[in-house]
Design brief:
444 residues; 3 domains; 14 helices; globular; binds zinc ion
């Protein structure tokens, strides 16, 4: 509670020093104000800008991307994308300010988007139509491949269609993006023959650049002993694109999407991905990336855990890999690793239960006798209240854990039910038909 205001103050000073602004601009340093100001200044639809930030970082100003992205909007100069340099040229703000100050970061992204809209020929009337910004958003992806550019822009528009909640919330609205030339590019994972993975049919296939992995025939040359678990430090589209960027010199076999557990394969299983930072481990492992940033648990959804565990279970069967933590390992656990992923918020207990086939879900009816039930950010009364569910509502139980002891409708219990990502309720207010732990539902 103390650090943030101080940090913001320092950044505010830095921003003002870089580009004198109207005095009122310094009055409100919240993310909401940053988006409102940037949208007004560059005539970019505010919610489009917010959705872009949500896709890039979940609106987390701390986000430090692997492909060089900085801040909420992941401005980057990385060999393909040059949004950081472009933002600096357009705004007159220093690259340091654009990297570290959220108002500058958001303003920079708005300026870049506006310049893309201008070069696409959007006039003032067109700029007022959110659907016309699609080509500008797709260009912002900095993707090598048009299909990935479409994936990125579709994500931004899908989020607007469904609405989302985070540090800033955006309500659902109808969207009908004008995709321009990208309308001819197949939608990601649309099932067109030729885009599905030969190794794992649920996966879309988007090959990494040949400069980023080693062609092999591992079935005859190396045993596959490990599955290495990673977190992307970037968006789904951004990570797939990074593997296609010859400057990256990295690749993983598979990447999962946070929102729904969708998966893309970038390297054939027979080939050696460059993901572990250790040649011996690269030769003996399959690398799996998960969309997100290690220090923000909002990315680690039940959908992604379950989809990833299904693949890992498949791989362990295919290659005879034991389903234990000696063989399904963190990138951090690879000898010599300089990365910390998947980080402290990755729930190994839950993941390994799923990998070992404990994949059930439970359901129950909230029974508080009258009032709404608090939803907390973790399994205990010491965690913040993050929402509520109404008495009588049905909830899905993705996994269960022990936490603080609570006395409620169904007696006294220390069992807590995870009913969504970062959403927990005490079991003693939920009629699941079971006393405490539900058979077949994983612990987490
Ligand atoms: Zn990693």
């Amino acid at each position: 509670m103390v650090r943030r205001p101080l940090l913001s103050l320092v950044l505010a000073v830095a921003l003002v020093a870089a580009a004198p602004a109207a005095p009122s601009a310094a009055a409100d340093r919240t993310p909401s104000a940053a988006f409102t100001a940037a949208a007004a200044r560059y005539d970019v639809p505010r919610d489009l800008l917010v959705s872009l930030g949500y896709a890039q970082s979940r609106l987390d100003e701390r986000a430090a991307g692997r492909s060089g992205g900085h801040g909420m909007m992941q401005l980057a100069d990385n060999g393909v994308s040059r949004t950081l340099s472009e933002a600096s040229a357009l705004t007159g703000l220093s690259r340091a300010a654009l990297r570290t100050s959220s108002p500058a970061n958001v303003a920079g992204a708005a300026a870049v988007l506006r310049s893309y809209a201008d070069s696409a020929g959007l006039d003032a009337a067109a700029r007022a139509d959110l659907d016309r910004w699609y080509p500008a958003v797709a260009r912002f992806a900095g993707a090598v491949d048009d299909t990935v550019a479409r994936l990125f822009a579709d994500t931004v528009y899908d989020q607007l269609a469904t609405g989302f909640e985070g540090p800033l919330s955006v309500s659902a609205r109808p969207v009908a993006p004008d995709r321009g030339k990208l309308a001819r590019v197949p939608a990601w994972g649309s099932g067109d023959v030729g885009v599905l993975s030969a190794d794992y049919p649920p996966a879309a296939w988007a090959p990494a650049n040949s400069a980023n992995f080693t062609v092999s025939s591992r079935e005859s040359s190396y045993p596959i002993d490990f599955v290495v678990i990673h977190v992307t430090q970037g968006s789904y589209a951004g990570s797939i694109s990074w593997f296609q960027n010859p400057a990256s010199k990295v690749s993983a076999h598979y990447t999962f999407r946070s929102s729904d557990g969708a998966v893309t394969q970038s390297v054939r299983e027979k080939d050696i991905g460059w993901h572990a930072g250790n040649w011996d481990y690269n030769t003996r492992s399959i690398g799996i990336e998960h969309e997100g940033f290690v220090d923000n648990p909002a990315w680690f959804t039940d959908a992604m855990y379950r989809a990833s565990a299904t693949l890992t279970r498949n791989l362990t069967t295919k290659y005879g890999i034991p389903r234990d933590r000696a063989h399904i390992i963190a990138h951090r656990e690879v000898p010599g690793a300089t990365h910390t992923d998947p980080g402290p918020h990755w729930n190994w207990t839950y993941y390994m239960q799923l990998v070992n086939g404990v994949t059930g879900t439970g359901s129950g009816t909230v029974d508080t006798a009258s009032t709404n039930l608090n939803v907390r950010g973790g399994p205990g009364t010491g965690y913040a209240v993050v929402g509520s569910v109404a008495d009588g509502a049905r909830v899905t139980v993705w996994c269960q854990a022990t936490g603080t002891t609570v006395t409620g409708t169904f007696g006294t219990s220390n069992v807590w039910n995870r009913i969504g990502t970062g959403r927990w309720v005490s079991d003693t207010f939920v009629n699941t038909g079971h006393n405490g732990f539900i058979p077949g539902v994983p612990r987490c």
